Structures are given as C-alpha cells and as structure tokens.
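Intended use. Records like the one below are meant for learning the mapping from a protein sequence to its folded structure. Do not use them to infer anything beyond what is encoded.
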Amino acid sequence: MRYIDDSVVMKRMTKRITFNKVWKTLFFLATAFALVTLAILLYRIITQGVDYLNIDFLTNFASRFADKAGIKAALIGSLWLMAVVAPVSIILGVGTAIYLEEYAKKNKINDFIRMNISNLAGVPSIVFGLLGLTIFVRMLGLGKSVLAAGFTMSLLILPVIIVAAQEAIRAVPNEQREASYGMGATKWQTILRVVLPAAIPGILTGSILALSRAIGETAPLVVLGIPVILQFLPNSLLSQFTALPMQIYDWAKRPQEAFQYVAAAGILVLMTMLLLMNSLAIFIRNKFQKRY
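Structure written out for the chain above:
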C-alpha cells in the first residue's frame, strides 16, 4: 500500500523550488537597488566635496563666501552636544533597563510601560524637538543652549538605548544569576558583577549606534531654533552653539552652486564621524564578546 504519491510530491517540490527562486531574486534585487543607490550618493558627495576638504575648511568659521566657509564652529558644537547627550542618555537608559528587567514585577502596568518605550523609539524626531522646545527652552528657560539641545537629543535616543539594554540584559542566562546567588551574592552584586559585564557588548553597541543617530539629526535642532552661523565657540553648557547637521542644512539650501559643494564637504566630515563611532561600537562588541 502506497501512502505517498511521488507525482504529487514532485509537483509540490517543483512549485516550492520555483517560489524560493522568485523570493531569492526579489531579495537580491532589493539589496542591489539599495547598494547601487548608496554607491551613487557616495560618488556624488565625494566627487563634489573632496576638493573643499582641507585644513582651512576645518579651522575656519562660517562665511558668506563659499571659498572661505569653514566648519569649525559646527564641528566643536557637535562635540559639545555629544558631551551632554552621551552621559545623560546612557546613564538614564541603562538604569531604566536594569530596573525594568531586574527589579520591576511582571504585571500589566510594567508591560504597558515596556510597550510604550518600544513605541517611543519609532516616534518622528520632530516630535521630540517640539517636546524639547516646550520643556527645556520655554519652561526651564535654557534657551538655544548646548544643555537644551543635549537634553532634547537625549530624549530622542533614550528609547533606543533602553530597548537595546533590555535585550542585552535579557539575553544573559539565568543560570549565571542563580550561580551568583548560590555563592551568597546580593541582587545588586549579581547585577554589577555578573549581569552587566555579560551585557556590556549589546548595551554599548546599541548606545553608540543611538549616539550616531543623535549626531546626524537635524529636525529637533531646527525646531529648537539652533543658529546655523556662529562666529564663536561655546564656552559653557549654557552657551549658544551650532552643529554639523544645521551647518550642512544651511549650505544645502543656499542658491549659490558653490555652497552645494561646501555642503558635500560637510557631509563627508559628518560621515567620517559616524563611521568612526560605528567602528568603535564594533570594536567594543568584539572585545567584550571574547572576554565574556
């Protein structure tokens, strides 16, 4: 007695193989389209902006003449901005993740909080800009300062860091926690000496990628009214400043063609900073993965 009809099986296999080839081709075309588009953008930016990349471009302030325009104020301003965003967002984000994963009880309220944090990661950046304008600029009177922009950018990337840290902490096997408790360690000692070291690669990778997003965002800075041209550097957290995205935005919208090339040079500087930060994230992840 035959339970399997070979002809039916072959017919279904042929259909499945054809279906697999179709989807494989579609995925390949999607990947190729993205890579070709990226290559064209990189080619245009590099060919337009590489001639403007020199020491004068990095050390000059902004100017109404394209050949004298520099990026010094925007570059230093972006570093000041990151000096606020990094500690605020990482300390608050990792602390929140530790509480939600290690201390908070599993109930509907905490599940609701976790779900809303995940949803906040997808909120458009301009909404955070409006929130920062209302709270930090108008209510707290911080003005268009480094501190107001830093707090606003911290709000923007905080949900991303919390979610990344939660996933990293959740991935630590419970056996490691139970072994620590079995040795007589307290909950905090277990978190500090067992959970966090094992979760560091995921936490730092997510945090640095989130910081990379913060340094390239423009919309919240536009809403806050951060100036695009400054002839001085910030000397405190309450000083006015400008940032790379704002400077590039100003150059790109000018009608003079020469400023389009200057904007391309600014994009190259910003991309270099992003690549360095992403490379640092990969280095840290690989280093700590080998250790733990």
